[in-house]
Amino acid sequence: MATATSQAQELITCDLCATPVQQFCNSCQVGLCEDCINKHVKSLKSMKHDIVPFTKRTVQLVFPQCTSHSHQRCEAYCQQCDVPVCIKCLTGQHKGHVFEDMDKVIAVKREKIKQETGEIEGLILKTTTQDSDTENKISKSITHFTDLQRQTNDHRKQWHLEVDNIFNKMESLIQSFKDQHMTTLKSYQSKLRSQNSSMYQTVEENKKILKSNQVSDVNNYQSKLKEYRKIPQIPDLPLPSLQTNTVQGRELSILLRGYMATLTQTSLSSLTDEVSFLSVKELLEEAKVIANIPTNVKKLVKVACVGLDKAWVSGKDKMITCVDIHGAVHDTVISTCKNYPNDITVTRQGEMIYSDSANRTVNIVRDGKTDTLITTPRGWHPVGLCCSRSGVILVSMCTTDRIHHKIVCYQGQRVTQEIDKDEHGVPIYQGGKYTVYVVENKNGDIVASDLNARAVVVVDRTGKVRFRYNKPPWGNKSFGPTQIKTDSLGHIIVADDINDCLHILDQNGQFLRCVDNCGLELPTVLSVDSEGRLWVRLYKSGELKVIQYLK
Fold it and tell me: Superfamily for 282-550?
């Protein structure tokens, strides 16, 4: 309230109107102007009112009105029923019960809140220290992994170019270990910071309660102390180390956490067999479904994983939705497509791109805005997409009549390579109505599923055909390759909707395993998350299955 000595003080107004306060009801703890005194007394005429000048007011507890007896205040607390009660309650439905004065109950609860608030403030200090320790551990881990990668590259110079794929595997494993390491530590840090933020908020709320003279605020207090006491310990993760041995002219070996490669004076085929063995031993004996995701996307047709537990999905409309492994929606984008996105994928920076065949564009979504990255030549329509490790975008495109298919590599808007015909001038990909899907493998190969030719076609970095995989190894059954993906170990995973299964090949086209035990009815769309799990879309149900197939 403004006074003659301090006009800067806040003006205190009547609780019933906007007029400056003059009187105060000690019974009801409300400020009143002269005009509102009668209004206040009449509104609660059955209750006693102690009206005094505002400067002589007495701040005291405001007891809640009884829900059973009008115009009565609850100045006692029934211990047996654990509820506030008025005088009439004590002679009525609570007659004979044990009760206490409300002010004593509130005093006890205030003391408990004060003690808990003090302990939470102590826990905040502890979690802040652990957060700093975790940040330091993350920094040291990054330095360690950076040094590990440097060591790998230094030793790589001593090896023959024909075993370059072994070092690619080692780098992939280091990146995988690093990703897992960072994911675990940052996940812990995120939980720690979330708890810290929650505790700060609780402290502020508790302080407001302690200042409040409302019985309900104190009485309704719910303790969170038990939850806050459970501060998780910082994960103590072992750091992998690189071990090498060089016997000049006879043998080179490299070992990383149980993964060993050795170069001796032997044939290339033997080395290839060794690399295949390293890949095979990583596969589970039997794949297993770890999640079934309801996407609620009408006619789901495309999936692109984002990190550990999210994926962009799209159907036969303009909407592209980001869902997590539990089916919860995190983001929605309305594409600029004339019809619907023909393919979607994610860059290494986590940005989503999609192809629009009708408008001949490849588009990127950044901060909720869509920009055109690529416009294909007239007569050619972009369909399949893949973002390479180097940032190059691989675009599978076809002519308007779908007679010709090719794969074009873009660095920005600039075409860096076209994969169209072999050294004899014969088209590498067969003409037809089906889309050619494309993906890059760890060794730089460009892998495509050509359903028109019912084959998987793999070319090297120069565009030369390395091999074709065109039939299952278990007989003369037809082969229906639809979507195709590769993983961190260089495996090629092919969705086969004719045989209701997934084919797993090594990077040289050798068949390793068939996944046919997970209820895969017409699997047509694939994606791989950062944990190496497959997200498979089933054509008929539109359901997404998350499948673990690696140890």
Answer: TolB, C-terminal domain (2.120.10.30)
Residue recorded with tokens 């060089």? 246
Map residue 402 onto helix, strand or coil: coil
Q: Which residues of the chain have pLDDT under 70?
A: 1-10, 46, 156-165, 245-252, 257-259, 262-282, 475-476
Structure tokens at 282: 């990583």
Q: What is the pLDDT of residue 277?
A: 37
CB neighbourhood size of 140 (10 A): 11
Query: Residue 365, Cα to own-chain centre: how many angstroms?
Result: 18
The whole-angstrom separation of Cα 402 and Cα 404 is 5
Strands in 310-314's sheet, in edge-to-edge order, are: 302-306, 310-314, 319-324, 329-334
Pairwise CA distance, residues 133 & 136, whole Å? 5
Given this model, what pLDDT does residue 542 score? 73
- Tokens coding 481: 């390759």
The separation between CA 106 and the C-alpha centre of its own chain, rounded to angstroms, equals: 44
Give the integer Cα–Cα distance in Å for 212 and 219: 11
Quote the DSSP letter at residue 16: S
Say if residue 319 is exposed, middle or buried (CB neighbours under 10 Å; 0-12, 13-18, 19+).
Answer: middle
Fold of 1-60: Double Stranded RNA Binding Domain (3.30.160)
pLDDT of residue 269: 38
| 143 burial via Cβ count (<10 Å: 0-12, 13-18, 19+) | exposed
Task: Please say whether the beta carbons of 110 and 118 come within 8 A.
Answer: no
- Between the CA atoms of 325, 441, 410 and 469, what dihedral angle is there, to the nearest 10 degrees? -100
Of 82, 115, 105, nearest to 225 by C-alpha is: 115
Q: What is the DSSP letter of 511?
A: E
Summary count for the chain: helices (H), strands (E): 7, 33
pLDDT of residue 412: 85
3-state SS string for 208-276:
HHHHCCEHHHHHCCCCCHHHHCCCCCCCCCCCCCEEEEEECCCEEEEEECCEEEEEECCCHHHHHHHHH
| Alpha-carbon distances, residue 77 vs 113, 220, 384 (angstroms) | 19, 14, 71
What ranges do the domains of the chain cover?
1-60, 104-278, 282-550
Residues 514-526 have pLDDT tens digits of 898 888 888 888 9
Structure confidence at residue 343 (pLDDT): 95
| Secondary structure (DSSP) of 47-72 | S---EEEGGG-----BPPBPSSSTT-
Most distant CA pair in the chain, distance: 107
Contacts of 50 (CB under 8 A, 6+ apart): 25, 26, 27
Question: What backbone torsions phi and psi does residue 281 show, to the nearest 5 degrees?
Answer: -70, -5
Burial (0-12, 13-18, 19+ Cβ within 10 Å), 44: middle
Residue 447 contacts residue 436 (beta carbons within 8 Å): no
